[in-house]
Amino acid sequence: MSAVLLALGANAEWIKQEQGVRTFSEEDSTWRLASEPAADMPMKITVALKVEDEQRAKLEQIFWDVSDPQHAKYGQHLTRDEITKVLDVPQSRVDLVKEYFMSAGATSVEVNPNNDMLTVTMNAATVESALETKLGVFTHSEEDISIVRAQGSYHLPEEVHEHVALVGDLLQFPRMRNKALQNLKATGAGSWPNQCSATGCKGLVTPFELKERYHVTESSNAVAGNSMAVAEFQGQYYKDTDVAKFNDGCSQNVAVAQVVGPQSQSAGVEAELDVEFMGAIAPEVPLTVINNQQFSLLDWTNQITSLDNSPLVHSVSYGNDEIQQSSDQYMYTCNTAFMKAGAQGISILFASGDQGVCGRSGCGFLKHKRFHPDFPAGSPYITSVGGTDFAQSAIGDETVWNAGGGGFSDTFAIPAFQKDMVAAYKARSDAALPDASLWNNTGRGYPDIAALGGQKAPYCVATGGRFEGVAGTSASCPVAAGIFAKLNGLRLSNGKAPLGFLNPFIYQNAASFQDVTSGINDDGKKGKGFTAVAGWDAATGVGTPHYENLAKVVMIGAADRSIVV
């Protein structure tokens, strides 16, 4: 052990690790402190090491270059080892922080392949001692689930603090699925014929309606190297028997190729929605389900960027408001991980949220008085998917689902890929923008795209041995992700690189999407939201996918300008 660490003791100076930490308020939360964890309870914590600003800037430039179809380096993604060289985290930093936690009583410290994150296994009492904090067991007011979090801030000795960006998710409280968005069988308003034999699907959205609306061409040919995945947290699992019921009732061929993480035998509607519909949109693409008991963006991004062959497209239906993140540093660290993924050719799509512009913490217009943008949906380094409804009862034009998340980030500036479209949106008189005091005029706009997800005609999901209606951008996201997985198949079959980070491609080919020009995402708050107009808007992005149109342009990059479409 280094001499400096051997010297640590009662007189060591301990530094608060995450600066600017937001205070947890039980008044605003559905989580309640219930008890203290047993001293010997095993825990895993993720420690993000400091990445020097110069190295992060190099990674970001690579990220933008390889993601831009108009750039000469488009598609020239890095390997995992090349990412490690770009980050260039000093081995002395890795060793010092690892040594500290081992000396504090950790049973193991795993270093990720990029040398920028550690996974530390230790018991609860040791966590409290190593981080000079007090842990608590928090229970959810609506779900039978509990998590362990710090009751206040945490600290590290000064000599360790300077090498650590943060300790992940000790201060984060995950969002749980809104129960009002499931078991909606009685509200199916679709007038189309019931093409699923299951009687519970009448008037609801099934793969048939999605494929017709989004012009999805059937393909049974798997392309070598293609892959996609869904992320599940908080005890959400799929059951083979439910997937089989979905296949039988809706004449589909959904199959899970691989499961990463522990798989339970209990059904979770979130997981089964993801698996059944992403698998139905792109049955020819091998589907991986990535399970994690706790919702942790850092753990998950560390996991997918550490895999030897990470799936090329990831759909994630989880998030929280920006103000619910523990700090700006937490979001900054997550963004670095998103850039690592995009630089390797991995596409990440997040649902934009299900509470309109007010987010999960709510506006109230009395107490908070501002809209609450979502994270990571408002991150410039991922693709955000909003929600729509059919405008009428038939398959056709779409309108904004009024509870779909959208708006402008309070933390991140407008990125170059959307600058012109966002400016055009704000300049339109029919945009009827909300009062300027409610949102950030200089923030990154989201969502980027949208797909069906509203309560007018929910998705028909086989779960718990029966069919029921389920709504939300949790439905929109896996459908959109499945379409991009199919587009990856076209590129791979023609010797091209996968799409990777999608947003430059999306905004450069906005005309290939189906524009949504009506509705507002005010979630019933009397017009306090963003209105859909022609072109990009902060309710549906550039619109919903048109697979056949996208298939015509997906091959074009800086080296492909001779291709005629």
Sequence-ordered SSE layout with sheet pairings:
Layout: H1 3-6, E1 14-16, E2 31-35, E3 42-49, H2 53-67, H3 80-87, H4 91-103, E4 108-111, E5 117-123, H5 124-131, E6 135-140, E7 146-150, E8 155-157, H6 158-161, E9 164-168, H7 207-213, E10 228-233, H8 240-250, E11 258-260, H9 269-281, E12 287-292, H10 297-306, E13 313-316, E14 320-321, H11 328-343, E15 347-351, E16 374-375, E17 383-390, E18 398-400, E19 407-413, H12 419-427, E20 443-446, E21 449-452, E22 459-463, E23 466-470, H13 473-493, H14 503-508, H15 547-553
Can you describe what's shown?
The strands form seven sheets. Strands 10, 11, 12, 13, 15, 17, 18 and 21 form an eight-stranded mixed sheet that branches. The protein contains 15 helices and 23 strands. α2 packs across α11 and α9 (269-281) packs parallel to α13. It folds into two domains: 14-51 and 89-168, no CATH class; 179-553, Peptidase S8/S53 domain (Rossmann fold, 3-Layer(aba) Sandwich), CATH 3.40.50.200. 27% of the residues lie in helices and 19% in strands. The chain has 565 residues and is an alpha/beta fold. Residues 1-11, 23-28 and 561-565 have low confidence and may be disordered. It starts with a helix and ends in a 12-residue tail after the last helix.
